[in-house]
Records
---
Amino acid sequence: MKAAAKAHTNIALIKYWGKRDESLILPMNNSLSLTLDGFYTTTAVEFQENLTADRFYLNDRLVEGAEYRRVTAFLDRIRQAAGRPDAFAEIHSTNHVPTAAGFASSASGFAALAAATAKAIDLPVNEQQLSIMTRHGSGSACRSIYGGFVEWEKGIKADGSDSYAVPIAPADHWDIRVAAVILSSAEKKVLSREGMRRTVETSSYYPAWVDSIPDDLAAIKDGIAHKDFEKVGVIAEANCLRMHATTLAASPPFSYWQSTTFSIMEAVQDLREAGVPVFFTIDAGPNVKVLYLPEQEETIRSTLLGIPGVHDVTVSRPGQGVSYI
Amino acid sequence: MKAAAKAHTNIALIKYWGKRDESLILPMNNSLSLTLDGFYTTTAVEFQENLTADRFYLNDRLVEGAEYRRVTAFLDRIRQAAGRPDAFAEIHSTNHVPTAAGFASSASGFAALAAATAKAIDLPVNEQQLSIMTRHGSGSACRSIYGGFVEWEKGIKADGSDSYAVPIAPADHWDIRVAAVILSSAEKKVLSREGMRRTVETSSYYPAWVDSIPDDLAAIKDGIAHKDFEKVGVIAEANCLRMHATTLAASPPFSYWQSTTFSIMEAVQDLREAGVPVFFTIDAGPNVKVLYLPEQEETIRSTLLGIPGVHDVTVSRPGQGVSYI
């Protein structure tokens, strides 16, 4: 009745932006990500006879309140699927995802939790079922089941049974790098979940965003297949800017960027004008992720670290999917 | 055969963004501006018998090349309308519009030039005809014929005869202030004319921009009529952000902003969160214009001057329309 799993976080190159169903976490559009080796969560789950409720420890700290309820509600679905609605677990989870890096630890967290819980309660699941299960905890987490390049198919069914991740290319397909630029001070004024909802409901640019996704996806998958870095970078950066532009047309308008975010975007574009193939992408927050090829490592690191307001840079390579440990 | 005129520049609160006819300078959408007393051009025009070509002095410097040809082509239309195709003029124009302030001196420049030229060549024109004439030199210049709040009606005719400015409220209707924030270094990487064209042709968000204008216009005109500063500011700022968002969805995407632009936007929003009614608007460049009421003058000036990268702040009040001097 015990198991442990490890899952990496991922960065979307084609963004997940907007839900068609808030409670089932079903997206308006397909998205595509790269799983990253530098950031991960390990989670051990043990179902115990004497427990009358789950106990959840995150980084050795007992968690209570809303965060605890989100985890226990997540386990409820798995307990019920396993026919063991009264089985409760002790969960120990460790995040190797610094919050300051602007990655949602929920992605690696729920992927590792789903895998460890299903195995501990002896519920046989394939990766597709695991991806769906994970999606109920956090949308983008469903992509962390697989390593390398991963697409989340939005699906069309009302029950979400066809909304899951599929692998596009494994981690060893292509050694590209992602530098997570950590800002000295990053306050997230608008939560991603609220910003997403406000954009879907009020932004007059949102429908055109959704319509733009199929072309982006087809082109970036072609770029990944042919290891065409310029193509992948151009599409990822444009997709990111198009996503953030939807928030400027929301009512009221808002932006996840800070002035340092903008400085980093400028620095990346300046490097590119100087002939360095490098691109950025930004999730629903002020932090910037920079995409480049291994031979540019030193140029990228030194340039980024020289920008005022940049605290640190952490580099990732393509990472593996969820695994049992 | 001589006359002199003075015209002020203007700042758009509902942006002119995109042409439906490049050669006649016909816009895709109505726009609305405030004429500003702080920035103006004075122009003297004298038709002389001995001249075989126009001579154009700007700030006491003889102008040649493309800038000269733009002016002489502009005079060609007026000469022909006056039935004097062989009359040439000496023109002395003085700009009181610092380039660094990010205002197009073309707005005040062509308005003053049209008025002085028509009078010097004895072509009787009313203000509507003067606005159309001015529009051929520079689109937004057609609004500088009038003082105060001005709307440029896009018109629907192919020949542009119904595309001109109309006065909404005179300069003395309402004492609001506009601070032009001058950046220490402002390079305009994408020219406004080219950026406008690229956006119209490639941005998937552009149609929704055009569709959004009628609601903005109706609301801001109501706000102006009732001197509702909050309403006018909210609409102007949202309209500006919606315009700039179209460029992020262009192909390739681009932005007129710089990191200091973003810092100023943040400072304005921070002031607002602290209870100060203040809003920003930004044209096709990195400079920011800040809207506020007279009683906030000191707060606004000191806050703006304290932002790194801000060189100076120049304050305007509502200005008068074109006049003969």
Note: The domain at 2-173 of chain B is CATH 3.30.230.10 (Ribosomal Protein S5; domain 2).
---
Amino acid sequence: MSKEKKIITMAEKAKTASRYIASLSSKDKDALLHRMAKLLTERSDFIQVENRKDVEEARKRGVSNALVDRLILDDVRIQGMADALLEIARLPDPVGVMDQFKIRPNGIQVGRMAIPLGVILMIYEARPNVTSDAAGLCLKAGNAVILRGGSEAFHSNTAIVEVLHQALQESGFPKEIIAFVPSTDRDSIHTLLKLNGTIDLVIPRGGEGLIRFVDENSRIPVIKHYKGVCHLYVDQAADLNMAMELLVNGKTSRPGVCNALETLLIHEKIAEAFLNRIEKELRLKDVVFKGCPVTQKYFPQAESATEEDYFAEYLDLKIAVKCVSSVDEAINHIEKYGSNHTEVIATQDISVAQQFIRGIDSSVVMVNTSSRFSDGGQLGLGAEIGISTTKLHAYGPMGVESLTTKKFVVLGEGQTRE
Amino acid sequence: MSKEKKIITMAEKAKTASRYIASLSSKDKDALLHRMAKLLTERSDFIQVENRKDVEEARKRGVSNALVDRLILDDVRIQGMADALLEIARLPDPVGVMDQFKIRPNGIQVGRMAIPLGVILMIYEARPNVTSDAAGLCLKAGNAVILRGGSEAFHSNTAIVEVLHQALQESGFPKEIIAFVPSTDRDSIHTLLKLNGTIDLVIPRGGEGLIRFVDENSRIPVIKHYKGVCHLYVDQAADLNMAMELLVNGKTSRPGVCNALETLLIHEKIAEAFLNRIEKELRLKDVVFKGCPVTQKYFPQAESATEEDYFAEYLDLKIAVKCVSSVDEAINHIEKYGSNHTEVIATQDISVAQQFIRGIDSSVVMVNTSSRFSDGGQLGLGAEIGISTTKLHAYGPMGVESLTTKKFVVLGEGQTRE
């Protein structure tokens, strides 16, 4: 059988298996998640032996220490993967939930019932924990999953999937519920992305290059986010102490993640006061500032910001700064340069806050809150399968509910239409 | 300016205008809908003069009477278009609705707010009333719309858009909120379908050929339905009188629409009794039956059904019939041959009904109700922009709510993340 044919067959088997998993009870799904967690812990040594192969290969290829670190699986991290599955088991089952029930004038009852999407394709790079996290989340929502991890974690991913398959087999479930693509070339992705009759949704997670490749080649709906250029707008009515806490936390607590701040907008009326504080703020002393001319006037150590700086997702201890004359100018700046991820306003003026909430169409809009809270766990979704910065189907952090859709359920007593 | 460039510019202007309409109050949007309705009535003669050009051209091209009839606009139909806009004005505004509000342990409040999608591209054929219906629905949900109607209604559509633009101008709103593609070749569609940074959603309405073309060429998310192969399963526990009413209504009340019945599944234990009734049912005497061997045994006038019959959307007084040995077999048949539109079970057994509801993943599942109720108006959505038979974003009949998405709104008091 050709490689392409093998992949198509695998996807079709996942489709068939998706009907099986869709019919499982919450109890059966949660028992399976518990078994998966238990086996991950029990077979931790096996996974680590396989993981070391990936780590050694990465070191040989001269991969940076930071990236090698993301790859390493030790006892603690494998326990973390198991714990994540147990946390998913504790979430309420999104499938079968009915809402919006109403009775029409002719007596028919109309409601909506959440059902699984079907087959979800996860394409991801680096961190091997995505293998068990994604499998657990898809399964909880009653979906089959096709996992296609990156070459750098191939041995680790293969080992994790072997353990997950053991859990499926011990539970008496078809192992095709969790399908794994045994190759890491782009041909296999190309083949998969054409299967729009078989696969219902693609979620790519990784660098902008991977995501763009998936988006441009997919015939299947894609949920993705390219980057997080998150803004903090410090309004003229801001509590400047609070605004400083939001800036420090948003920029420095974890600069390499997508919900870190990348641009600071300051109302010109408080620009001098706020920039003077920044100068004295010890916790910001390692941060490189790139500012507009007004910024530089009050804060001379700021370098000159270019157009590119306002588009940049630095993922580093750098921040672009611009002084604006109104909340409208701040909203327009975000509309032009933003990435629809997360925007924060610091203000004590409720009207300005309302204007900001209404005017910003990013997936997460915050008032007086650190951008670092913009993730599924922090916003109360339980575990997170990804973040969507496009508006269709899901927008913002996505929990298990995003892996379902809603069908109409209609109950009658023989009603017919005139 | 090249034609391609002109279309791109038009789309970009619609994008800019979408921010304007997104910020309008419910009152302003509803006043605009009222003005549009009033002007359609006032300028009815002008629209009819233009419409007659389309009708004459269609007659010259030898188009069937049925299709010519769909094209004709008279006073009554134009009043119907105006009334539809008034009905849309009466719907609650979906934009700005907040729900799912909760307070997290750290005190931040998290909710979801409905916001417009942005720019919606409608690509449609035939009926010119879609021009005002689609514009009204998109506008109500705070979106800009790009209308691309078919060549057969070009003069009518142009006239209707002229009237709608007059309403926008009299209200002091930018006319780019309702953009109209002034050409009907496929090149213009090709250009539009590439604008995934500018247009947020495409809704094609028309024949399967048009929809497939759009789906295969779009870089923008598409919401569509190809066909409605709706099933009625008459269970062994059905009330046979009720089942007969559902069959007659589903098949004969309007055979040419997508929610008409196309396949009848009968539990073999009541097949003889039910097929004997069909034979005597005068209201079914014009219907052609295509049956499986068991069907033919009890109902000899049925022709032999082929595999194609079970896939067929006849849109005619024809129906495929199959006898099955269980509700599971019925579910499997629907899974294999169905189109995810609407499926009905006739049964008095609540467990079987539950099994059918759980087992069917079509967009509308009905118990003891005519399939003909499967549309937005009948299910209580108000007006309908289309039906989706794919699971992402919207599934089943789509009302104005489907033209919005939800962003997260987070209210804090300076909370930062550890």
Note: Chain A touches chain B through 66 residues (CB under 8 Å).
---
Amino acid sequence: MPAAPRPFDDVSAVHPCGEGEYAATVDAQWGVSNKPNGGYLLAMLGRAAVAGAGHEHVVTASAHYLHSPDAGAVTIETTVLRKGRSADHVRATLRQDGQACVEAVFMIGHLDEATSPYWDAGAAGRPSGDRDAAVRVPSTSPTGMRVPLMDQIDLRLDPSCLGFAVGSPSGSGELRGWLELLDGAPFDTTALLFAVDALPPATMEVRPTGWVPTLEMTAYVRALPVPGPLTILHRAGLVEAERVDETTTVWDSAGRLVAQATQLAGIRLG
Amino acid sequence: MPAAPRPFDDVSAVHPCGEGEYAATVDAQWGVSNKPNGGYLLAMLGRAAVAGAGHEHVVTASAHYLHSPDAGAVTIETTVLRKGRSADHVRATLRQDGQACVEAVFMIGHLDEATSPYWDAGAAGRPSGDRDAAVRVPSTSPTGMRVPLMDQIDLRLDPSCLGFAVGSPSGSGELRGWLELLDGAPFDTTALLFAVDALPPATMEVRPTGWVPTLEMTAYVRALPVPGPLTILHRAGLVEAERVDETTTVWDSAGRLVAQATQLAGIRLG
């Protein structure tokens, strides 16, 4: 029986426990097998970074993943690298039992609701599919791996990129989906850090494999999303020497580009 | 009269001056106006990170730019975040007069010469233009800004993306070029960190502006380049709220994809 869903705000909460220090708990369900999702951990770090900053929105985040923590207690140490009028820069390090697990640097600034694109190359075209016709991702992957995260969120994929689920990946290396939190909570700029890493590896539509651990991930938040499901495009780039780069673009329910991310991950291919 | 070119190896050199500490000198010529190039600074940090690691190649680098240093003396403090069998993770912070200017985290590992792509989406198609027909970028920009860097390197742009130089940007937001170091030195993995930021802003082909300062830049080195000029594709994504994202792809002279980067920069548009 799947674990009862817990709100994202709860599982990513951080609690001050010293000067620039926060305590948090990695939830056992927010990941793949027993490995917590990288975007979930980055969101947790982002909440600690915002808590210690003089501004409110994550604008950039770049993270290196050093060691996958187990579910349970972690600490987050934050250091303000620079305080500015328009943005602060904050380093945050997540540790478990003294071991560094994730280190990220954030630019925390202010995003205005009233902005609009000046110019857009449109290189990552927003998927035009129909969310009502999309298929919710189950919590067991085609390779038999348990993905408890999928019982905690409402993630749906376009049927045209579900070849991997029936043993026939399209070869496109591209997944298109829609993401909602189960409690219907809107996505703030820290929840967007989870959203950019919520889809299965885009390489599922090249060749399904086991765990594809994120090594480095960088996200840019470009606008504040309106409430409603996010549309997400997740694309693999080059698979070589057991590494793959993936790019992710996120739009809000009004069609506005709100976040972009790139990651390098390990993979047992190439 | 332009300053005599200095080899990249010299201007990016770092000298041990304590436990995990390095001294370096920011060259006045390697930048735009009096601002040093962000990729040049990242390469300097990368050399310090490699010096303190048990492996030899930069695989990933993610940097936040906090404050632009002046030409002159800087120090680089490195901290090994994790030592591993296949890779080390190293944080490096560049300071001038005690002020933090750039902080970056690196994954330092080993890239094998014998690898080849397993799968490639080909999303960033390698420019097919002719380097012999390309135009060397001069050290004065169309907006009248001095770019002394261009006297220090051999950077040539495809004539089809030079509209900006004659007041008629194509609107593509894309630059395609070829880069060589003037002393003909091959690009190692740290020099590639400079290469990903060597081109003018891709927004020149949207609308020429003044300085476009890098806020965050992340680079992945995917393979070791063979000697010879690099081919570089530099594309703008979304310009909004005085920020722009740019993606850069670099191929070696044999046509192999060797590096990828993304950056968020400030711009006086939107």
Note: The first helix of chain A runs from residue 8 to 11.
---
Amino acid sequence: MAAVSLSVSNVKPLGDRVFVKVSASEEMTAGGILLPDSAKEKPQVGEITAVGPGKLNDDGSRQKPDISVGDKVLYSKYAGTDIKLGSDEYVLLSEKDILAIVS
Amino acid sequence: MAAVSLSVSNVKPLGDRVFVKVSASEEMTAGGILLPDSAKEKPQVGEITAVGPGKLNDDGSRQKPDISVGDKVLYSKYAGTDIKLGSDEYVLLSEKDILAIVS
Amino acid sequence: MAAVSLSVSNVKPLGDRVFVKVSASEEMTAGGILLPDSAKEKPQVGEITAVGPGKLNDDGSRQKPDISVGDKVLYSKYAGTDIKLGSDEYVLLSEKDILAIVS
Amino acid sequence: MAAVSLSVSNVKPLGDRVFVKVSASEEMTAGGILLPDSAKEKPQVGEITAVGPGKLNDDGSRQKPDISVGDKVLYSKYAGTDIKLGSDEYVLLSEKDILAIVS
Amino acid sequence: MAAVSLSVSNVKPLGDRVFVKVSASEEMTAGGILLPDSAKEKPQVGEITAVGPGKLNDDGSRQKPDISVGDKVLYSKYAGTDIKLGSDEYVLLSEKDILAIVS
Amino acid sequence: MAAVSLSVSNVKPLGDRVFVKVSASEEMTAGGILLPDSAKEKPQVGEITAVGPGKLNDDGSRQKPDISVGDKVLYSKYAGTDIKLGSDEYVLLSEKDILAIVS
Amino acid sequence: MAAVSLSVSNVKPLGDRVFVKVSASEEMTAGGILLPDSAKEKPQVGEITAVGPGKLNDDGSRQKPDISVGDKVLYSKYAGTDIKLGSDEYVLLSEKDILAIVS
């Protein structure tokens, strides 16, 4: 079996899942918003890198996702599966764990 | 990737979520209502800052939220995700965790 | 932002929630019913102060509540959210946590 | 606010709830059935004192209860809410927690 | 109030419940099957003594039980409510906790 | 009451349950597959001995099981109820706890 | 009873289950992606070896799986049942525990 190469471009989420690049906590304050120390340890902001086809409905149709590639989002810190590619952190989330778009 | 700037005006809740500014416990007593010490440590009052499009129904329609931007609300203290922007505290809640409007 | 003033008259429960004034344990025995010491520490009696519009059904209609303002009720001690206004205790309950009317 | 007087006759269960007078463990053996010591500490027998209107169905109708006032019943020991009126013990149960009628 | 007499013949299970006489572990080996010591401590065999009318369906009909009075059954050891009548042990089970008939 | 004799041939599973003879871990490696020591302690292979009529659907019909008597199966190690008959181990499983057929 | 021989080719998953060969953590970095030490201890990549017929719908039809034999996938590390065949590790997963295809 050939080796599996993980890179950002070849991760295709299934169902209602989305692939999110975790924003470093330094970046979150670049716009002048100062986060207190305790908050810096809880990065909950990221950018959507890939979106699955959507949740499968009972009748076999798909629920079109409300978010798109490139959206900056807030998500539940304890949700999803963390994945590290090189020095970057990613998280695979269910769409329902995304709380808000921060456009 | 450009930095993500979090500010009150650019948080757009998804689904049935609402963005609420947490009221400081001092303010809650301004109208003459005195809260005992133990209660002061449990701020459960806030003002709605942004409202999502509403919960997605099984048929693809949306359940219109019962609350609006500007409403003062009581909410479950342990619900939602806390977010700090500068010196202000916010919370992202599901509409179902809002208990009452205090108009 | 103006301060939020909590008072009995301006709490408007949402959905299937009701606002209940907790009866002091002394009052519960006024009719001649003597409660043993251990029971006195578990006040589960109150008077309905405000009633929400009712639980939202799946078809968008509301389930009319079975209780009304002024009803004396028994409720589950560990249910709901406690709220103190001045020296009075209140609780915000879901209607399903109200066990019986004690008329 | 007037005091709330709790007495057997004025407890009106809501929904699928029933009001049950707990039988003293002495009484349970009166018919000649001897309960060992360990069992005596788990009274799970009672008599129905009041019955609610029944569980609300999704279509707004009520599910007529299978038990009636006066029925002697076995119930799950850890179910419901205990209430003491004078020297008598009562329990407010959901009908589903009643296991059997012992007629 | 008259005393409640518990005896085998007057226990009438409600809903999907069945009343089962627990078989002593000695009896289980009478047919020549030897149970090792550790298993003897987990009696999970019994005989059906009474059967309820069956689980209530959503449309108000009853789901006829698959077992009958007199059936020997295997059941989940930790399910149900134990009841002791004289020197005999009984258990009130939901039909779903009965695993198999051992005819 | 006569004694209950447990033997393989008289166990009739109810509903979606199946009766499975646990394969000894020695047997699993007979085809040349070597299991490491740690895996030997987790026998999760067995042979179907009896199959229930299938899960009851909401409309009263039965869901025909996907497995048959004689199938070798892999099942979740922590599922079901263990039963020992003589020196043989059996397990009563729900069909959903069977992971795969190893034909 | 004949011995059960486990080999890759004779494992036939039931329902919505899939049989996945776990990729060694060395292989995952072959394409130039360097995984930090802590991540190496969490192999969550594998290749689909066999696919079940799909989840059974309520109407008796099957939900066709979204993945196929040969797909490289990311899956939840703590999901499923581990199986070791010779020196290779496999996992039996429900399709819903597969997060993404990494083609």
Note: The first strand of chain A starts at residue 11 and ends at 13.
